[in-house]
Design goal:
18% strand, alpha/beta, Rossmann fold, binds UDP-4-deoxy-4-formamido-beta-L-arabinopyranose, 2 domains, single chain
């Protein structure tokens, strides 16, 4: 059974990916520093798959801890690196925290991965590397734009660090998955998104408003040049996204990669407006959502949705769930954790 290390494995996307890895017969080692996640997620994973991942609480900013961990696990076949801070707004207020937490940790992980017999890494990147792309849908060839936030910058710089390391080290193979907007939860409602404090992202704010935790959703602007004036995004079910990681990992393990550093856009290929997401929620929940139009949010791009041709044909992955499916799972999860 091949051993895979998942960093940030108790996070939203990480936990769903651990479930899919276990479903595919991999042995999972999980590292998390619990700064933005809870150890109870481990129970959720175990209750879904019947297999408890080996969990190590570890701060990846401590280089010696990272070195010691890899000394004890020289038979790791691949690493899926999620661990990072990811709040766009917070990154503007605390840039050094983001550069330290997102880049130092990547460098320490890479230093160890290149020393493994099997040097394979999947990197959690983001469509934010494109900024406001000129052309929709966005392909992997779209030029990266200056990042709108330190968070987005750490994803751009992270990809460059990996690309340069792949070029310098003969046997390191890497894939960067550029996520669009991950939403929803596992169908069992045993794991899902657990935003700490007031949710920054649209979908958890919608479900918390419907659950009565928030009074009213603010729609940040309805005067954009789009079909209904609200911003367009590509909302992808988190389980579809998790499955993309397993497929990408197998691509490297099977040496099917065509170059040592590859990037893939992981989205549905469908652009949905904020008002369409609200409508989808109301359809699947049967509830009417309390929302109001508010001023635009600084840093928002008008539109971003993926051209999924490369992921569909080269990676052999395609999103299976619709916006309604994802919203239904998000609401089922919110109801479960609030005992509604
Ligand atoms: C989506 C749309 C908002 C909240 C960010 C990061 C991305 C990834 C996902 C980490 C926008 C609107 C939102 C609200 C609203 N993060 N909105 N009211 O900004 O597209 O992407 O989160 O990996 O890297 O950039 O996602 O969910 O914050 O916003 O109207 O209360 O919903 O203006 O148009 P975003 P989001």
């Amino acid at each position: 059974m091949k051993k895979i290390l998942v960093t940030g494995g108790l996070g939203f996307i990480g936990s769903h990916t651990v479930v899919e890895l276990q479903n595919e017969g991999f042995e999972v080692l999980l590292i998390d520093d619990l700064s933005n996640s809870s150890e109870s997620v481990l129970d959720g994973i175990t209750s879904i798959t019947g297999k408890k991942p080996t969990f190590t609480k570890l701060d990846l900013k401590e280089r010696s801890s990272v070195e010691n961990f890899f000394k004890q696990h020289e038979d790791i076949s691949g690493v899926i690196h999620f661990a990072a801070s990811k709040a766009v707004g917070e990154s503007v207020e605390k840039p050094l925290l983001y550069y330290e937490n997102n880049l130092n940790t990547l460098i320490y992980i890479l230093k160890e991965v290149i020393g493994l017999k099997d040097s394979n890494i999947i990197f959690s990147s983001s469509c934010t590397v494109y900024g406001q792309a000129e052309k929709m849908p966005i392909t992997e060839q779209a030029p990266t734009q200056p990042a709108e936030s330190p968070y987005g910058n750490t994803k751009q710089i992270g990809e460059e660090i990996i690309k340069d390391t792949c070029r310098a080290s003969v046997h390191l193979k890497a894939i960067a998955l550029r996520y669009f907007n991950p939403i929803g939860a596992h169908s069992s409602a045993k794991i899902g998104e657990l935003p700490i404090g007031v949710p920054q992202n649209l979908v958890p704010f919608i479900t918390q408003t419907a659950a009565g935790l928030r009074d009213c959703l603010s729609v940040f602007g309805d005067d954009y040049p789009t079909k209904d004036g609200t911003c367009i995004r590509d909302y992808i079910h988190v389980v579809d996204l998790a499955k993309a990681h397993v497929i990408a990992l197998k691509r490297l393990l099977n040496k099917d990669n065509t170059s040592n550093f590859e990037t893939f856009n992981i989205g549905t290929g469908v652009g949905s407006s904020v008002l369409e997401v609200i409508k989808s929620f109301e359809n699947v929940s049967g509830k009417s959502l309390n929302y109001k139009i508010a001023p635009r949010r600084e840093g928002d791009v008008i539109s971003a949705f993926a051209d999924t041709e490369k992921a569909n044909t080269k990676l052999g992955w395609k999103a299976q769930s619709s916006l309604d499916d994802a919203m239904r799972s998000a609401w089922k999860w919110e109801q479960k954790i609030r005992n509604l």
